Amino acid sequence: MRVGIVGGTGEIGEGMAMRLSRIMDVCVGSREVQKAHETCDTCLISAKERGINCSVEPGSNQQVVDESDLIILAIPFKHVESTIRGITGWEDKIVVSPVNPMERRDCFVYTPPTEGSAALFIQKILPSNTRICTAFNNIAGNRWRDIDSVLSYSVPVCGDDPDAKRIVMDLVDSISELKSFDAGPLSSSHIVESITPLLLNVARFNKMKDVGIRFV
Ligand SMILES: NC(=O)c1ccc[n+]([C@@H]2O[C@H](COP(=O)([O-])OP(=O)(O)OC[C@H]3O[C@@H](n4cnc5c(N)ncnc54)[C@H](OP(=O)(O)O)[C@@H]3O)[C@@H](O)[C@H]2O)c1
């Protein structure tokens, strides 16, 4: 399976690319292909320094969608609509949303669109045969990039297509010590997305870093 990361140059995108490209073929997408090249170089150098194989290719966001079976939308919520509408070929793809709509006011606040969640908004604007899952919403970008550290978080996965959800859960379980949990249909995504402002507030008010979740 080939995994594409739209916005693969960003805070979580690059860290995901570094980790995923060691275990599968990854395509890093950007609006500027040169930026995607730089992220791929970072992945390759980091893997080479550790004597690990790495399979990563740069491309435009359109190339990522064209060439991948599963696409992670690693872009801020405010740019999701323009990005999705600017790309064709979403039909039959699996799309993973780690997207959390939120704002920083006195503290971090969950600010979902009228559809109820980023995931349901994404579902509304993608073709009806695109299979969407929510995953990776609650892992801090720093933790992805801290490449030698173990990721031992729980990852809730929401989605309506059982086959797509199984594939996404298997993907989660292939990364470090992440453990996937079925968190229900896509309409439950608001619960998962809204955990992230909670984690950020807990980190801030308790002087902690990169707070995550683990179900026991
Ligand atoms: N950061 C975290 O710790 C974290 C944790 C969990 C979930 N998330 C979620 O993951 C998603 C990505 O977060 P992030 O912090 O990685 O974001 P980010 O670093 O701010 O941006 C990610 C990428 O989005 C692309 N981008 C920026 N402006 C754009 C525009 N106007 N149109 C299209 N693409 C644009 C950029 O790629 P190019 O310039 O290369 O095109 C950028 O590298 C968000 O939805 C966030 O809620 C983040």
Description:
With 216 residues, the protein is of the alpha/beta class. 38% of the residues lie in helices and 20% in strands. The strands form two sheets. Strands 3-2-1-4-5-8-9-10 form an eight-stranded mixed sheet, sandwiched between helices. Helix 4 links the parallel strand 4 and strand 5. Helix 1 crosses helix 2. The radius of gyration is 16 Å and the shape is globular. The site of NADP nicotinamide-adenine-dinucleotide phosphate has 25 residues, from helix 1 and helix 4. This is NADPH-dependent F420 reductase. GO terms for molecular function: coenzyme F420 binding; cupric reductase (NADH) activity; ferric-chelate reductase (NADPH) activity; NADP binding; oxidoreductase activity, acting on NAD(P)H. Keywords: Oxidoreductase.
Keywords for this structure?
cupric reductase (NADH) activity, Rossmann fold, alpha/beta, 10 strands, binds NADP nicotinamide-adenine-dinucleotide phosphate, eight-stranded mixed sheet, 38% helix, NADP binding, 8 helices, 216 residues, coenzyme F420 binding, two-stranded antiparallel sheet, P5C_Rdtase_cat_N
The CATH first-level class comes to Alpha Beta
Give the strand tally: 10
Q: What structural class should be given to the helix and strand makeup?
A: alpha/beta
Largest sheet descriptor: 8 strands, mixed
How many DSSP helices?
A: 8
Q: Per the principal axes of the C-alpha atoms, what is the gross shape? A: globular
Please provide the ordered H/E string of secondary-structure elements: EHEHEHEHEEEHEHEHEH
Which CATH architecture would you pick?
Answer: 3-Layer(aba) Sandwich
Protein name: NADPH-dependent F420 reductase
InterPro entries: NAD(P)-bd_dom_sf, NpdG, P5C_Rdtase_cat_N, STEAP_metalloreductase
Domain Pyrroline-5-carboxylate reductase catalytic N-terminal: 2-101
GO cellular component, one term: plasma membrane
